[in-house]
Design a protein that fits this description.
By secondary structure, the protein is mainly α. The protein has one domain. 67% of the residues lie in helices and 0% in strands. It has 16 helices and no strands. Helix 8 packs across helix 13. About 12% of the residues have low confidence.
Length: 277
């Protein structure tokens, strides 16, 4: 009888051990699943945070919170939503802009207060420059707007002058460019479409300038050219964007017709073309 009880007890213990082992296996699987989920969520949050940082609302929402005194001091440089803007751009809606002289269009009202420039991160300054009311002229009328800035024709715009001298400008432009998408929504307001488009034009022009070349790896250079080629194709095949910006095509054509003594990007473009023929 005692032996039987021992066997029963032993059997129960074995059963308990097996159940315990099964439980542990399930627990390990659950823990693994949770870890994977956390990593995925973390990655998702990281992407979300990055996207938010790239978005103008987050950029200027952050600026407004961190520099309340400056926003109060310069209320004309922020719209009702707290985003940076050039108040003079409102004259485009009334037709006054077209009647203004070149000196008026590039005058004091398009000069960002120096206090604001110093307080802006490079991401914010890039965004501000893309909102310049003459952006459409820069990227529709000139093949090399960045070089045009450097040559001095638009050097009067202190925002761009400050941007091109920021130490992290190349990395900021690269991240913004590679992670941005071309506007495709036909129902989007025209001014927002143009802003998104010209911001990418500004990125591309900065990135494909001779001065930027040594700041990137071989892989990054190929990514920049690939992105520019893709953008050029999108503009050419989009009713929404066609005719709004020739900067992408112009930049690529410049590389096709230049030689490597003018810009080191020529060879990078040749390598890209060879790899994608």
């Amino acid at each position: 009888m005692k032996l039987r009880k021992k066997k029963i007890l032993y059997g129960k213990q074995q059963s308990t051990v097996k159940k315990g082992e099964a439980y542990m296996r399930k627990a390990k699987k659950c823990i693994l699943a949770i870890c994977v989920a956390v990593l995925l969520v973390g990655a998702g949050v990281g992407v979300l945070i990055y996207q938010q940082v790239q978005g103008s609302e987050s950029l200027w929402g952050t600026f407004t919170k961190e520099h309340k005194e400056l926003v109060q001091k310069y209320p004309d440089w922020f719209d009702k939503n707290g985003e940076f803007y050039f108040k003079i751009s409102e004259k485009k809606k009334t037709g006054e802009w077209d009647k203004m002289s070149w000196d008026e269009q590039t005058g004091k009202e398009t000069q960002i207060p120096e206090e604001l420039i110093k307080a802006m991160t490079t991401e914010q300054l890039l965004d501000a420059c893309a909102r310049h009311p003459l952006a459409i002229a820069f990227y529709n009328q000139f093949e090399k707007p960045y070089q045009t800035w450097e040559d001095g024709k638009f050097k009067a715009f202190n925002g761009m002058e400050a941007l091109i001298h920021r130490k992290d400008v190349w990395n900021v432009c690269y991240q913004d460019y590679i992670n941005s998408e071309m506007p495709q929504n036909k129902n989007e307001k025209e001014e927002k479409v143009e802003y998104c488009l010209y911001r990418q034009c500004l990125d591309a022009d900065m990135l494909l300038s001779p001065k930027s070349y040594d700041h990137f790896t071989k892989k990054q250079r190929q990514m920049i050219i690939k992105k520019t080629s893709e953008n050029a194709n999108i503009v050419d095949n989009s009713e929404l964007l066609m005719g709004k910006a020739s900067c992408f095509v112009s930049l690529l054509c410049t590389l096709d017709t230049a030689d490597d003594t003018e810009t080191p990007w020529v060879k990078a473009k040749e390598r890209y073309d060879t790899a994608n023929d």
